[in-house]
Amino acid sequence: MKTVARLDDIANRPDKFMSLTLFELEAKARSVLAEPSFAYISGGAGQERTLRANTEAWGQRSLRPRLMQSMDGFSTGVRVPGLSLQFPCLIAPMAVQRLACPEGEAAMARAAASQGAGFVLSCQTSVPPEQAAAGAFWFQLYLQPDPQATRALAARALAAGAVAFVVTVDAPVNGVRNREIASGFRLPEDVRQVMFHDLPTPPVAGIEGLLARAPVWADLAALCAESPVPVLAKGVMTAEDATLAIGAGCVGVIVSNHGGRVLDGLPATAEVLPAIRAALPDVPVLVDGGIRSGEDILVALALGADAALLGRPAYYALACEGAQGVAACLRRLRDEFTVAMSLMGRRTVAEIGPDCLFT
């Protein structure tokens, strides 16, 4: 049995795992995970065009450095609603992380805290939020057909330390994930979505029943009006919807295509990010999808993001080495970002903008 790693164990300890790049983590995880679990974690919708496009798009931008700049006061720190981060990265909300590690979300949260990254706890967590929290965190919400159920989820997350809600708006139904279906994936008996255990689950007749009860902008506005903490909308891919989210009361948006897991054929998030930033010049805009290096984060900031969310590589690292693996993954990402930012001649995150890229 693996020992439980504490924050002071994993914060700065050199680790052989750090020799792996974020690209290499996928193959390592495939060697340790059961094939159905790997298919669930790694797979995308349809032919996985969007899944591939997310990763490829960041590398299609060329960096434009400025030389011999003063680096006095250099800092990679950034603030997002409710959180102060040591570098502009958060762990994206990902479901049932006990598929990868017995500690699941608790290990992921602890590793994020050790490296000064943010943590977004999934509504589909496999560890109770009271156990998963390792400090202040954001909580992902799926709006439920019954507003009382949504309130119950929100109240429990707030009691556990949530400082913002991330409402996923792009998945009224699940995508058709071919690899996951072919693998025959089912949740193991000892892994469950604990937040939903005590909530009522009214019967729904097929996809038509789901769509008839799907949330609309008015439901998001109602949550924003009631919420004691900031609300961000996740899954926004157009300037129109970004504007509607802010109009509903959200303080910011997360540009996301759900990691290519819901609708195949969507563009990469890097492609739509500049237009959404142009539509929302004065509010927090974050992005996820295909981040695999510190340079990718720098490109994301240059295209208009305030911070980026890391998904699958953190899940892979969790499968390989638990909290130690995630901490090493984040430490490498943070080091890569620090080096890239310094070589670009940018002293603070606020200095990263469109002029960091060749057009």
Task: Please describe the structure with a list of short key phrases separated by commas or semicolons.
alpha/beta; 40% helix; 359 residues; 8-stranded parallel beta barrel; 14 helices; two-stranded antiparallel ribbon; 10 strands
- DSSP, total strands: 10
Major sheet details: 8 strands, parallel, barrel
Sheet/helix structural class: alpha/beta
Q: What string gives the helices and strands in order?
A: HHHHEEEHEHEHEHHHEHEHEHEH
Strand order of the largest sheet: 3-4-5-6-7-8-9-10
Q: Report the end-to-end length measured between terminal Cα atoms.
A: 52 Å
Query: Mean pLDDT, rounded to whole units?
Result: 93
Percent of residues in beta strands? 5-15%
Indicate the percent of residues in helices.
25-40%
Brief synopsis:
The protein has 359 residues and is α/β, with parallel strands linked by helices. It is 40% helix and 12% strand.
Structure description:
Helix 2 runs antiparallel to helix 14. 40% of the residues lie in helices and 12% in strands. Strands 3-4-5-6-7-8-9-10 form an eight-stranded parallel barrel, surrounded by seven helices. A two-stranded antiparallel ribbon has the order 1-2. The model has no long low-confidence stretch (mean pLDDT 93). It is built from 14 helices and ten strands. The termini are far apart.
